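Technical annex, item 7. During the second reporting period the consortium partners agreed on a shared format for inverse folding records so that results from different sites could be compared directly. Each record opens with the tokenized structure and is followed by the designed sequence. A conforming record, contributed by the partner at site C, is shown below for reference.
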């Protein structure tokens, strides 16, 4: 039997999952779980780059694990775990930071964007964040990393670090490939269609959460920023708001952009927004039901977390030992 290829990916417990996280990444995680050997992490160490209350973080990371399962990840088929429970991540991160250049990190657009947003807390972790991400991926000898468009640059850096390390020490790491969806790779904010929908946005009207009640979802879509032309046409440059709603509608219904333009020919934004809202509500309904059930079984989630960390730790430990031997620390 040939070995299945490996997938690794993660999300930060910085808030509740948005429709952007779902359409850009999570949906692919679910779709790929049968074909690949998958390791999915709640990357709680990454979320320390913003300030958290301890009790909120503790709650959010468990909730994120429940959201993973509610979205359709089968805990029997996949390894699901907390990043901080496998110490190899932090250890490899340090080692790789000695093989990553300041110049490379300075070019990361996410660092620049986040630094601009949190000027009172431009911590060193925000700068070295992509090295921890490279460690996450490389520890598992990962073939494929399903993420949204915004993570492409970080993935390229992970590949560069892996190739540099392999160039010195021989074949230590598998060089990973990104896996980015054709539609939905970059869902934009409903209030500012020039920037991406983000779960840590302070304006709650800018995002749809997977756990938003139906009335909230309908209201947020009704308030979404569009334009004054009143024509449903895909044109990202001149009609970014409408184009974003069309991408969302296309992702959840499977209809092409052309079919959507035909469907709403002669109709106004009111009808269109209602249709988008209803399609999203229906997509999220089963996820919300499953989530509510899971959050009643915290012991089950805790147990899963423990088993996941053991399984992940075994794989990560092998790679870390190899790295230690290669560089002369063992
Ligand atoms: P934060 O607001 O804290 O920066 P985030 O919402 O950007 O968080 P992450 O946890 O950093 O989410 O990302 C999880 C995954 O979701 C990544 O694969 C990322 O590429 C994807 N993703 C995030 N936002 C979007 C979006 N608006 N459209 C498509 N994919 C997205
Ligand atoms: N940086 C990612 C989250 C992340 C990740 C990973 C994604 C951390 N480690 C490893 C894929 C693989 C983000 O979405 N902001």
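Designed sequence (site C submission):
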């Amino acid at each position: 039997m040939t070995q299945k290829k490996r997938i690794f990916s993660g999300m930060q417990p910085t808030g509740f999952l948005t429709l952007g996280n779902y359409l850009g990444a999570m949906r692919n995680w679910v779709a790929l779980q049968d074909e690949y050997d998958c390791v999915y992490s709640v990357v709680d160490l990454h979320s320390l780059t913003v300030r958290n209350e301890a009790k909120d973080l503790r709650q959010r990371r468990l909730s994120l694990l429940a959201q993973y399962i509610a979205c359709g990840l089968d805990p029997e088929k996949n390894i699901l775990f907390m990043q901080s429970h496998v110490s190899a991540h932090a250890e490899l991160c340090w080692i790789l930071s000695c093989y990553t250049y300041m110049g490379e990190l300075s070019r990361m657009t996410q660092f620049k964007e986040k630094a601009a947003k949190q000027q009172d807390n431009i911590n060193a972790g925000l700068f070295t964040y992509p090295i921890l991400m490279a460690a996450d991926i490389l520890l598992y000898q990962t073939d494929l990393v399903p993420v949204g468009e915004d993570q492409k640059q970080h993935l390229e850096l992970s590949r560069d670090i892996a190739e540099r390390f392999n160039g010195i020490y021989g074949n230590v790491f598998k060089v990973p490939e990104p896996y980015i969806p054709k539609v939905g790779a970059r869902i934009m904010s409903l209030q500012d269609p020039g920037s991406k929908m983000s779960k840590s946005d302070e304006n709650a009207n800018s995002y749809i959460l997977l756990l938003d009640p139906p009335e909230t979802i309908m209201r947020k879509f009704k308030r979404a920023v569009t334009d004054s032309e009143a024509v449903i046409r895909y044109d990202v440059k001149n009609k970014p708001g409408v184009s974003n709603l069309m991408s969302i509608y296309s992702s959840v219904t499977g209809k092409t952009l052309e079919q959507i333009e035909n469907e709403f020919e002669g109709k106004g934004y009111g009808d269109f927004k209602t249709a988008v809202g209803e399609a999203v509500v229906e997509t999220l309904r089963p996820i919300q039901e499953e989530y509510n059930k899971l959050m009643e079984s915290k012991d089950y989630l805790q147990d899963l977390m423990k088993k996941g960390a053991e399984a992940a730790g075994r794989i990560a430990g092998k790679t870390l030992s190899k790295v230690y031997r290669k560089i002369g620390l063992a």
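The chain has a mean pLDDT of 97. The CA atoms of residues 107 and 153 lie 9 Å apart. All partners now use this format for quarterly exchanges.
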